[in-house]
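New to this. Help decode the following:
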Amino acid sequence: MRKVRTTLLLGLVAALAAGAAFAQVNFSQYEALGDSLTAGYSAGALTKFYQDYSYPELLAQQFGITSFQQPTISDPGIGSYGTVLELTALQVVNGSVVPVIGPTPGNPGQPINYALPVPYNNLGIPGANLGNLLTTTGNITNLLTGNINPNTIMYDLVLRDGQHTAIQQAIGAAPTFVTVWAGNNDVLAAAISGVAIVGVTLTPTAQFQQEYTTLIGALRQNLPNAAVVVGTVPDVTAIPFVTTIKPYIVNPANGTHIPLLGENGPLTEQDYVTLSASSLLAQGIGIPQAAGGTGLPLPEGSFDPTTGTLTAGVILRASEIALIQQSTSEINGVISTVAGQLGAKLVDFNAFFANIVENGVLVGGIRLEPTFLTGGLFGYDGIHPQRLGYAIVANEWINGINAAYGTNVPLVDLRPFLTGEGTLTTVSAKSAVFTSEAAISAIKLFAPNAVTDKLEPAHVVRHRLVALPVREESTVPDP
């Protein structure tokens, strides 16, 4: 890896000297580098249904590009651990409707345009961290011959040739315009796996700085006339996967809070419980016996440095939340600094998402929020945007591009996304069950080697049914 980075950094001083003053921007050849947010991944899978509305595809349309190539997958898509998630059932518990979210039955979808003789324009790789864009390759032959490895499937789908990394393919395509939204997975693995440890699920800041300087430096050195725009990393502790479930249940007799149980003791109200806990809570796990549960604790993630084993959990203690937020702040500082040094323009998605968390976003008179199922922005995995969410992201890219370069790229028309198939997650419910299969699928994308045994169904019997502890419900009306 060190050799690769050293090679890519050659000539970086020359790139710095060249500066980044662009008289005009040429959008004719657009390449997008990034992770699942760039790929158009949603509801736990890559599938054409969502890929057709990825933000790079929407940007290309607004740029006037008529042929923008992505590694499209037929329905029901390909995830790291199955197919796209869907609403599989509506259960009634104590008079309340409880949606059940799980993988679509049947075989995964198939690659559609895998024989494209040139690199894809969208090189977003679900599950990839920053270092993967510099060093990891993929071979489509593995998929075509049935040699499917969940750890490498996304690289095989996107990179295909078995020889060139994402950064090498992006440079080889000789683009005139490049977007880079990378670094999300350098913190997201901690939030999804329930284990926040620097050097295990959080990329050390010094390492991130070296890798980010290498990535952007390689683009500036090899593509001196291309415009490069980068994005910061949003606060991953504010996504529905992390914020939906309360760390307590409410005593219906007097309204007091009864803490949920973790392996390290009762939770505090500053702790978080991920969506992966919902199927366990539905069995009474994590709920005290006096409140109708089993009294068994929810699993807390761990890491064994002796064996290198990462065991996924469903709880993020307050100290872990603080560590994730600190790491996010540090890598965003790196992104901003490196962009300024190397002449890349910056779109601050951290500030953008923070504003949505605080105030929501109005679209056609409807206030959308980052809440699970009812908010209108996120898909069924609680991690990635749905179509409407990606369109809003695309418009923020456009706002940033127009502000940076004085261009007049038109915004995406959001009205068609408010009706029909464009908006899927508007089920009104007080709680939801995220199946163990859905939870494992989410974890395996970002922490493919994590042990998930504790998330498997325990086959325990609850004393009585109680409502799942869900945080404050969105008041967004169905469009």
The chain is about 35% helix and 15% strand. The longest strand covers residues 85-93. Residues 74 and 295 are 44 Å apart (CA to CA).
